[in-house]
Sequence to fold (428 residues):
Amino acid sequence: MSQPNIQLIRGFKDILPGETELWQQIERTAIALFEDFGYREIRIPIMEKTELFARSIGEDTDIVEKEMYTFADRKGDQLTLRPEATASICRSYIQHKMYAQDPVRKFYTIGPMFRRERPQKGRYRQFYQIDAEIFGVAAPYADVELIFLLRTLFERLNVTDTTAHVNSLGCPVCRPRFKEALSTLLAKAASSLCSDCLRRKDRNPLRVMDCKVPGCREAMKGAPAILDYLCDDCSSHFSTVTDMLTQLGVPFNVDKQLVRGLDYYTRTAFEIQTGALGAQSAVAGGGRYDGLVGSLGGPEVPAIGFAIGFDRLAEIVALNAPATIRPPDLYIAALGEPAKKLAFEWSAALGLKGIGAAMEYGGKSLKAQMKQANRAGAGRVLIVGESELESGMVALRNMADKTQKDIPVGVIVDTLIETFSKKEQSIG
Ligand code: AMP
Fold:
């Protein structure tokens, strides 16, 4: 009896050829931009001790309460598949004492994250993030640099339908006063809050501002604005952020409702939103987390970062520009075993020179091979069979203008290398 096919885990997905070209292009664009601005790549593990995320993201957040993939390993250690990258980067920064020589470090990382959310379009249980962080800079220039980088990256990818939303979440000096005012409002509005927010209202009232349930949204309409409660330092920090964004020509909205789902944020919080993806409008989010390194046992080093939802970004980029798949430069149509052996050797030699030469390894007819060459979009086809081997000349056909020229077998690889380098020069 045949076994049932094994399917993907719900909320997980394959990224297939046809899509990966676009992912690579986005990755290359992001990496080039980060490197130009002095960011260095860091690669952190997929799994960490659960405690790291519980302590940094916060016990009262959706992620820690209900979304983490947490399990005991064979020895009973509590481990978690990372739901985001910042906590691990902080752990690594502290563990390797990266602050010792110079606390200022700029990192980027790209990879999968795991959250057990309800899957829907734009929301997956394994999703990818492109992440950048600056450590050791308290000045608002770091905040502006990150938002500027996001804007630039999206522009380079032709994603223009985006808006940057910025807010300040204050600091331990001014936030308590705001929380108090918010809690007073929430106590009055308790009867219209959802069950999650009833719980949040005492433990983490800022999170109620983030709730999408209509009753909670309605209740939050009369909520105080955190910007009215900022202390002088936070206020001047925020003014510099908005001034510099204006100076750099980065459009933004001050969004006083904007909070972030993770506990560790202080001062600037920002999100890039887009109308292109329906309900899942946030394509990137980030903010300052000045207290996190200290609270994880490191020195008091300020920091700020962002995470782009790679899957969502790829979906938006695909709307404007379907992925371009590189066709083979050359197709070698070979007939008969001796010709195939020779063709195989040529295709290996050409591949080493960056010339993609496709061929067929079975016994297909010339007609079938020509069809395959056409379907693959090969620019040129080399035809080699018994008679070509006998005469010592093979025909190279240009598929665009249908011209053909004969090349002696002995110099075929060199001639093709020359042909393709000329072609490249003429394109360049
Ligand atoms: P966060 O780490 O929650 O600040 O999220 C940063 C960005 O990651 C969001 O703006 C989304 O674009 C993306 N993101 C977060 N969760 C998911 C998910 N479950 N599936 C796809 N993308 C996500």
